[in-house]
Amino acid sequence: MKLQHNLGGLEGLDPINFETQVFVEPWEKRIFGIHTAMMALSNHLNTSLPKYEIAKAPTTFKGFWTWGHLRKGAEAMHPFEYFRLRYYEKWLGGISGFFVGEGYITQEELDTRTAELLADNPTATSPLPKGDNAAIDTQVDKYLKEGDSPLRPAPTPPKFKVGDKVKVKNVHPSAHSRLPGHLRNKEAVVALVYEGAFTYFFPTEDGLGTPMPVYSLRFQPQDMWPESLTEPNSVYYNDIFEVYLEAA
Asked: Sign of dihedral through CA atoms 154, 75, 176, 28?
């Protein structure tokens, strides 16, 4: 993962935010709702599990949007900006960038609207139009209840079994990765082999995308961090895709 997502064991990252509210500002609920609606209307749902008749949804949104895209946008941010912005500000940046990149709006339109809001223009805070579209509401509600599963039948048997010693490959960060950087080159023991195989939202440069086994690995904390940063008799677990592993 990129710098801002590769913080395992690093010190001096204060101040730590112990905020317990899910939404701190009212606008954060709106951003969460937009992201949820985008996932529920994403065009990839026509091949997902469970099946959705997404082509019949009466929406002008025809894009491909998942949790993976949201994470990919965050990983692409400049580290200084990533640490400066609040959680849902990062979401807002990723979603806005997607709509500009896909041609739904222009950068000029986004900048103009942003300037109006920052200037506290009364016309810029008018209520959003109500959709009143039962078919879209039904689709979003169905997605919230059923989602789309990454679980698939296993194409091949797992390479490793419980008790095997494995080593995490030294995979360098690409545009998007699901490998925590502090685990590269570290050895572990397979604690659990999850049943079936798991795909990812979209192919990545480091090998994700096709269905593959996922393992729960047991690491010894002292193998990764100084003894002063570890708790006695503690164990560290992480779930890792098979493409990131080799025999120790």
From this structure: positive
Among the three residues 103, 119, 148, which one is the final residue of a domain in this structure? 148
Examine the fold and report which residue of 148, 165, 184 is the final residue of a domain before the chain moves on: 148
Domain hosting 213: range is 152-247
- Rounded Cα distance, 70 and 232, in Å: 37
Identify which of 230, 232, 141, 245 has the alpha carbon closest to the alpha carbon of residue 189.
245
Looking at this protein, which amino acid is placed at residue 51? K
Residue in the structure block whose two tokens are 């990533």: 82
Choose between 79 and 210: higher pLDDT: 210
Indicate if 66 and 171 belong to the same structural domain: no
The helix-helix angle for 87-101 and 26-40 (nearest 10°) equals 40
Rounded Cα distance between 199 and 204, Å, is 11
pTM of the model: 0.86
What does the pLDDT look like over 34-81, one tens digit per residue?
A: 999 999 999 999 999 998 999 999 999 999 999 999 988 888 888 888
Q: Residue 185 and residue 18: Cα distance in Å, rounded?
A: 32
* Interstrand relation of 197-198 and 151-152 (parallel, antiparallel or unpaired): antiparallel
Number of separate domains in the chain: 2
pLDDT classification of 181: cutoffs 50, 70, 90:
confident
Same domain, 35 and 18: yes
